[in-house]
Amino acid sequence: MLRLISDNTSIKFIKLKLISFSFSAILSIAAIFAVIFIGLNFGIDFKGGILLEVRTSSNIGIADIRNKITDLNIGEVSIQEFGVDSDYLIRVERQEGTDNAQQIAVEAIKSSLDKAFTKDIEYRRLEYVGPTVSKDLVYDGVMAIVFAIIAMLAYIWFRFELPFALGAIVALLHDIVLTLGLFAILGLEFNLATVAAILLIIGYSMNDTVVIYDRIRENLRKFKKMDLNELLDKSINETLSRTINTTFTTILALGALYLFGGQIIADFAFAMLWGIIVGTYSSIFIASTILVYVNVRRTKEIES
Amino acid sequence: MLIFENWKKILVLTVSIFAIIFSLPNFISKNLINNTPGFMKSGEIRLGLDLQGGSYLLLRVESESLQTDRLNSIADELRIGMRNSTPRIGYKNLKVSGTELSFALIKNEDISIIKNVIGDIDKELIINSDNYTNIKVSMSEEKIKEIRDYAILQSIEIIRRRVDEVGTNEPIIQRQGDDRILVQLPGLDDPERIKRLLGKTARMNFRMVNETANIDEALSGRVPPGSDLLFELDERTGEKTIPYVIYKKIGVSGEQLIDANPSMDQNNQPVVSMRFDTSGSRKFGELTSKNVGKRFAIVLDGEVISAPVIREAITGGSGQISGNFTFESASDLSVLLRAGALPAPLTILEERSVGPSLGKDSINAGIYAGIIAIILVIIYMIVIYGIRFGMTANISLMVNILLILALLGVLDATLTLPGLAGIALTIGMAVDANVLIYERIREESRSGRSNIGAIDNGFKEAFRTIVDANITTLLAALILFQFGSGPVKGFAVTLALGVITTMFSSLLLSRGIITFWYNKFKPTSLNI
C-alpha cells in the first residue's frame, strides 16, 4: 500500500534542534510583537457592539447602507460583503451608556434601513452584546484557556512524569502564541468561536504529543542503554507515518469545512487548520526535542 | 484464529443497530417520520437556534427598582415616624437614590433615637451613620437576595406567559446566574414583536385625572402633592404629546383584569376589550358611578394610554380601552394584560437572532462540507491502507458518525453550527485511532511477527496510546462545555461524543470486522 513516509525513516530531528528552536523562537517573538503592536481584532463577543447580516436586492450597494447608518450618528460602522455580493455584514461599535443602548441603536438602524429600502432588505442575522456580557465572555474565555493548559499539564504530569509535562506545555504555549499571532497579522476576527478553536488546538496538539511521548516511554523501557538523542529520534521516526497520516485526514476534513462549510464557519475552520499544522510541528520539534534538556531517564517510574 | 469474544460481538452488533435505527429519523422526510414507531422519533436531533433560526436573548431583571420602591415607602414611613416622635426629630435632605435612602439630622443627639425609629419600621435595614449629617439606610444582603429571587421567579413566569401567547414552539426560559434570565425562542417569524413585548413591564392601572390642577404650573415643576404629571405618547413616534395631572391613588389595578382582547369600536378604530374579575368589577363600577362626567386615565408603565370622560357608570365588569392604537399595538397590549405585569423592568444584555433562511443555508453548507470531508477521508484511507483495512476504517467511520447522530438525538442534545464543525472534525480525527492501530500492525509485521501476532499486538499496543491521546481531546471538550455558551457548548458536546464513539468504533467495531475477515479468508499476506 501507499507509504507517504518510507518504513524505516531515520531523520535526525534532534540534530535540527538549534534550527527548529531558533525558528520557533523567532516566529513566537514575531507573533507576540504582532499581538502587542497590531493587536487582535476582537469581535462583538468581547468588545460589545452590534452585528447585522443583511441580504439585499442587487441594486443596494455598500455606500447606500453606509449613508443610512452614518446618518444615525452611532459611532464607527464597518460594512463588508459577506459570501455572495448581495449579502453584507454590518458592524457597529459598542454604544456607550446603559445596557439598553445597544438595543436602542439596533432598532434605530433597522427602522432607518426599512424606511429606505422597504422590502429589499432581509435581516439574516442580528447580534448585539452589551458591555456587562462582553466582560463576562472575556473572563470565561481566558479562564477556559488557562484551565485547559493547567488540565493538560496535570494530565501529562500524571501519566508521564514532570519532565514530559514541561515539554508539552512549552509546545502548547508555542501553538497558542502562533495562533494569536496569525489572528493579529491577518486581522481575523477574534471571537467566541476562536476561543473554541484555540481549545481544540490545545487538545489536538496534546493528542499528537501524547502519541509520540507514549512511544518515547515505551522505547525508554525497551532500550535502556540507548543514547537519548538516538532514542528520541527513533521514537519520532517510528510514529512519523502516523503523525503525517492523521494530520492529512484532519486537514482534508477541515479543508472541506473551510471551503464549503459556509462563511460563518470559515474563520473557525481556518484557525483550526493553522493550529493542526502548528500543533503537528510542535509535537515533533518542540515537545519531543526539548526532552534532551530535561534528563527523562532519571525519573523514578522509568528506572523501576 | 483471532479471538473476538462473544460478548464483544453482541455489544458491537447492538450498538451498531442502535446507531442505525436512531439516526435514521434524521435522514428521512418529515412525513415519513410521523409513520415511524414512536421510540425512533427520539433520535430526531434538535437543532440549535443558529441552524433552525430563532432568537437567543439574555435578559437582566432590574430588581433594583423593587428596592427603590421599597425604600420609597420606607421613606414615607420614616417621615411620619420622625414627625410623631417626642420630641419631634428634625431632619433634612431625605431622599432615595437607587438602592440607598439618605438624610441628615439637625441635632447630633437624635442619632440614637433615629436607630430605634428605623428599627421599628424594619429591623433588617442596614443603618450606616458615621456622622449625624450623613445617615444612609439600605437593605441587608439577605433581603436584597430575597427580593431578587422573587423578581426572577415571577419574571420567568410572566415571560413564559407572554411567549406562550405569541405561540412559539418549545421556548426555553431559564434563570442564569444572580439576576439574569436566558430566553431561547426557536423558529420565530417576528423576533421584534417578542422583544417589544418583553420590553414592557405592563403595570397598568386606572386613575382619576386631577382636573383642578393647573397644567402649566405642573409643567413648570409644581406638581400638586398626591398627583403625578404624566404624558400620553404618540404610538408611532413615541414622543410625548398631551400632559395630564393624575392622582397617585390607584382606582382599579390592571392585576384585576381577567381577559383582554383586541377588537374594533363602532368607528372601526382598534381598541382593547377587557374584563375585570368580581372585585375589580365592583371597584370599577363604584369608581365610574361616583365620577360620571369626569376624566379618568388608563396608565401603563407611567404613560397615559388615554384619558376618556366617564359618560355613565360601567357596572358589568367589562369595558374598552381606546387609544391611539394600531391593530398590532392593540393586540400587543392585550397579550401584555392577559399575561400580567413584570415585577421589575427587563433589559436585553445580549441578543443573537438568526433568520430562518440563514439557518437553512448553514445546515446545507454544513452537510455539504461534511459529505465532502467523508468522501475525501474514505478515499485517502483506501489509498494508504488498501481496500480491506481502508474499508474497515471507513465502515467504522460511518457507524461512528451515525452513532454520534443517534446519541445527539437520544440525549436530546442540541446540534449547532459549531457542532456540525465538531462532527466534521471528528471525521478527520476518528480515523486517527485506526491509523494508530494500522501503523502498529505494519510495524509489528515488519519486525517479523506472524499475521495473527501482528494484528493482535497492533490492537493491544495501540489501545493504550489511543486512550491516552483521546483523553486530551476529551479534557478540552469538557472545559469548553463548562465555559462556553450557546453554540460553543454544542461544539463541545459533539466533540466529546465523537471521542467516545471513536473509541468504540476503532477498538471494538474495527477489530470485529478485521477478525471476521481474517478468520474467514486466512490470507497469507496482510497487504497493509
Helical residue percent of chain B?
Answer: 40-55%
N-to-C series of helices and strands of chain A: HEHEHEEHEHHEHHHH
Q: Compute the number of structural domains of chain A.
A: 2
How are the strands ordered across the major sheet of chain A? Answer: 3-4-2-5
Radius of gyration of chain A: 24 Å
Largest interface: A-B, 76 and 77 residues
Strands of the biggest beta sheet of chain B: in what spatial order?
A: 7-8-2-18
Termini gap of chain A? 40 Å
Structural class label of chain B: alpha+beta
Sketch the major β-sheet of chain A: 4 strands, antiparallel
CATH topological fold name of the largest domain in chain A = Multidrug efflux transporter AcrB transmembrane fold
Number of E strands of chain B: 19
In helices, the fraction of residues of chain A equals 55-70%
Topology (SSEs and partners):
The complex is a heterodimer of chains A (304) and B (528).
Chain A lengths: L16 H22 L2 E2 L1 H4 L1 E8 L5 H9 L6 E6 L1 E9 L8 H17 L3 E9 L1 H30 L1 H25 L2 E2 L1 H31 L5 H33 L2 H26 L11 H4 L1
Helix pairs in contact in A: 1-6, 5-6, 5-7, 6-7, 6-9, 7-8, 7-9, 8-9
Chain B lengths: L5 H18 L6 H6 L2 H4 L4 E2 L1 H4 L1 E8 L2 H21 L6 E7 L2 E6 L5 H11 L4 E6 L2 E5 L2 H26 L5 E5 L3 E7 L4 H8 L5 E5 L6 H5 L7 E7 L6 E8 L4 E2 L3 E8 L5 E7 L1 H13 L5 E5 L2 E4 L11 E4 L5 H13 L6 E9 L1 H55 L3 E2 L1 H30 L4 H33 L3 H35 L7
Parallel strand pairs in B: 1-19
Antiparallel strand pairs in B: 2-8, 2-18, 3-4, 4-6, 5-6, 7-8, 9-12, 9-15, 10-11, 13-14, 14-17, 15-16
Helix pairs in contact in B: 1-12, 5-6, 7-11, 12-13, 12-15, 13-14, 13-15, 14-15
